[in-house]
Design goal:
Helices cover 90% and strands 0% of the residues. It is an all-alpha fold. It has one domain. Helix 1 packs across helix 2, helix 1 packs across helix 3 and helix 2 packs antiparallel against helix 3. The chain is globular. The mean pLDDT is 95. Bound molecules: magnesium ion. The site of magnesium ion has 4 residues, from helix 2 and helix 3.
């Protein structure tokens, strides 16, 4: 049986592979428009989930839109230059870690 990490790596490799193919096949402009659409759909599904968190169809909708957005953000990273995005992610993670440490200090 595969571990969660193995499944995540396998899925991630496939998302990258299919994302690259989607950009080549449909073009950058089309995938940027699709990204906007999917981000809006996730926002709408999260609103419905917050209004009625006990609804299984609302939860299923969040899962579906989150999957769509995960695929589209991979494509956005490729289109907008992965390495530049990675650098900003590192900076933001540093800042978030500092905030977490500050918050934990406040709890003590
Ligand atoms: Mg969608």
């Amino acid at each position: 049986m595969k571990t969660e990490d193995e499944i995540a790596i396998e899925l991630s490799d496939r998302v990258v592979e299919v994302s690259r193919s989607a950009i080549e096949t449909f073009g950058v402009e089309c995938q940027l428009m699709k990204s906007i659409e999917e981000l809006a759909e996730l926002g709408a599904s999260l609103c419905r989930y917050l209004v009625d968190p006990d609804s299984l169809s609302n939860l299923a909708s969040v899962h579906e839109e989150l999957a769509d957005v995960t695929i589209m953000t991979t494509q956005l990273n490729m289109i907008m230059d992965d390495e530049s995005v990675c650098e900003v992610i590192r900076e933001k993670l540093d800042r978030l870690e500092s905030k977490i440490a500050e918050e934990k200090k406040g709890d003590g």
